[in-house]
Amino acid sequence: MGVPSTIDAPTIKNAFEDAPSVCAIFAAGGFIHNIRDAYGSAERLVMMASALDFTTRMIPRGRETCASPEG
Q1: Which residues lie below 8 Å from residue 50, measured CB to CB, with a gap of 6+?
Q2: What CA–CA distance (Å, rounded) separates 57 from 59?
Q3: Is 13 exposed, middle or buried, given 0-12, 13-18 or 19+ CB atoms closer than 10 A?
Q4: What is the mean pLDDT of residues 36-50?
Q5: Is 25 in contact with 33 (CB distance < 8 Å)?
Q6: Which of 3, 19, 35, 39 has the most CB atoms in a 10 Å sphere around its CB?
Q7: Among 26, 16, 9, 21, residue whose Cα is nearest residue 66
Q8: In what helix (H) or strand (E) does residue 21 lie, and over which residues does it extend?
Q9: Euclidean distance between CA atoms 40 and 3, whole angstroms
Q10: Which pLDDT tens digit goes with each residue over 10-25?
């Protein structure tokens, strides 16, 4: 079984679980490695935060969300 989402688990009220801060990383368009670079940056932030005993979450599907009319 995978990690529950707000659709799968009614006990989860929001995707960020009332996080005190959220970091969004955007990549510049037109660069061949933009998504990989942005993901690598996010991965390093998560590892550094974990080393400082912060609970972290990474949501790597922002590309589709920001490409939507609502994004």
Answers
A1: 56
A2: 7
A3: exposed
A4: 89
A5: no
A6: 39
A7: 26
A8: none
A9: 21
A10: 676 666 666 677 788 8
Tokens of 2: 């995978």
Residue 58: half-sphere exposure toward Cβ, Cα within 13 Å:
15
Residue 27 pLDDT greater than 60, yes or no: yes
Task: Classify residue 39 as exposed, middle or buried by CB count within 10 Å of its CB (0-12, 13-18, 19+).
Answer: middle
Which tokens belong to 36? Answer: 């990989």
Q: Rounded to an integer, what distance in angstroms lies between the CA atom of residue 71 and that of residue 62?
A: 9
Per-residue confidence band for 54, with pLDDT thresholds at 50, 70 and 90: confident
Predicted local confidence at residue 5, as pLDDT:
56
Give start and end residues of each alpha helix (H) in the chain: 34-51, 62-67
